[in-house]
Write a structure and sequence with these properties.
mainly alpha, two-stranded antiparallel sheet, globular
Length: 408
């Protein structure tokens, strides 16, 4: 049975690795790899960790909420009512079931995220510089084939800017690596991965990254005031991170001063910045629809007066506002409670284990990702839902072990 357990873990980690490094790519392969662990759980359930009945009931409650609002949306004719069933109905229970595979391997997950960050860093840096130096090279052709128009390197306007779906993974990985670097003994691999990803942040031009990657660790620190500090933490590490990031910023500013100033200034520019104006129009439209039915919302898959994407008119960048618009105060509050439970679980673990723990690193990345999701609907996509899945699996493991009388 040990081989079955190991196979299930390898398959789940393979999906997680692809979701981090190659998100939105190979959906059929990911689905196939996902079905095998589910089959193994069905056939050899006793070889894995159990399911805490309270957590399963909570997951079932979220499934029923999603189903209820989709039925409501379907009755009133919302075009996306059925399209959101997978995310809102299937995933809550699926995450708890797959959580049976996790058996307390926090240290292993820590090493896994560091490895994934290194691979992502090497892949993206190679893609950017090879495309600049040798346009149309093999790597860029592969990315163009996988991602079509979502893989771009722009170097014709006096600056270098690139776009890849895996940039979103950096929202989690940079805070995670930052806290790991700060809390444990010096690791050259962690340092290189962190510096490489910071360089990629500047090259990506993603404004959300510039804010959330620092906000996550700060908020995580404030939420865990009183936790045991790591005996490896040193102020010189803060100075190193700040100095290197400032150096990158200085070099980038020296090369592309107008571009960097414009990016920073545009964060608060809601008058003529097209990206910000887009979100203003969405906000006004969604809130107008919300106030018509504030308690229950317009139903899952509803479309506001302003349409962002014609192919998926119910999808908006302002994810939380769109949830409030579609699910109302009642439905939205239930999902907020669910996420708050995960945050409080991680906080409790940090207070027990200290800030040198995997849980603290994860909490920092988790908060950063939640903040970034406010302006981009990351949590509406399978490849980014692992951010929710992992703390659910950890919570289930701890709950089952506690129920068995095993001290944690």
């Amino acid at each position: 049975m040990l081989a079955v357990d190991r196979l299930a873990k390898i398959l789940v980690l393979s999906i997680l690795f692809m979701s981090l490094v190659l998100p939105t790519a190979f959906p059929v392969l990911k689905l196939f790899l996902l079905l095998i662990p589910l089959l193994l759980l069905a056939l050899f359930g006793k070889s894995f960790n159990g399911i805490n009945i309270k957590i399963f009931n909570l997951a079932l409650a979220f499934t029923l909420v999603g189903l209820g609002w989709s039925v409501y949306g379907y009755i009133v004719g919302n075009p996306g009512a059925l399209r959101v069933l997978t995310v809102m109905v299937v995933y809550p229970v699926l995450f708890v079931v797959l959580g049976m595979i996790y058996q307390g391997e926090a240290e292993g997950l820590k090493r896994f995220f560091i490895f994934a960050a290194l691979v992502l860093m090497v892949l993206d840096l190679a893609y950017v510089f090879c495309q600049v130096l040798v346009p149309g090279n093999l790597l860029s052709q592969v990315f163009a084939l996988i991602y079509d128009g979502s893989a771009v390197v722009d170097s014709v306007q006096g600056y270098i800017k690139f776009t890849l779906p895996n940039v979103t993974s950096m929202i989690f990985l940079i805070p995670f690596l930052m806290c790991r670097f700060m809390s444990e003994k010096f690791s050259f691999r962690v340092f290189i991965a962190l510096m490489g990803l910071c360089m990629l942040v500047l090259l990506s031009g993603r404004r959300a990254l510039l804010v959330t990657v620092f906000a996550g660790p700060i908020i995580a620190y404030l939420l865990t005031v009183g936790a045991i500090a790591s005996n490896r933490s040193s102020y010189w590490k803060i100075a190193v991170i700040a100095s290197v990031f400032m150096m990158f910023g200085f070099v980038f500013y020296s090369l592309y001063p107008d571009y960097l100033v414009d990016k920073i200034a545009s964060i608060t520019n809601f008058e003529d910045n097209s990206s910000n104006l887009e979100r203003v129009w969405q906000f006004n439209s969604l809130m107008e629809g919300f106030w018509q039915y504030p308690a229950v919302g317009q139903g899952a898959g509803a479309v506001a007066s302003y349409v962002r994407t014609p192919d998926m008119p119910w999808a908006y960048e302002l994810f939380y506002v769109s949830m409030l618009f579609q699910y109302g105060v009642i439905g939205f509050s239930m999902y907020v409670i669910g996420v708050a439970m995960l945050v409080m679980f991680l906080m409790k673990q940090v207070r027990l284990k200290g800030r040198g723990s995997f849980e603290f690193y994860y909490l920092a990345g988790f908060i950063s990702f939640l903040l970034a999701t406010a302006t981009n609907p990351y949590l509406a996509k399978f490849d980014y839902m692992w951010v929710i899945f992992i703390p659910v699996a950890m919570l289930n493991y701890n709950s089952t072990r506690t129920a068995e009388g095993v001290p944690l």
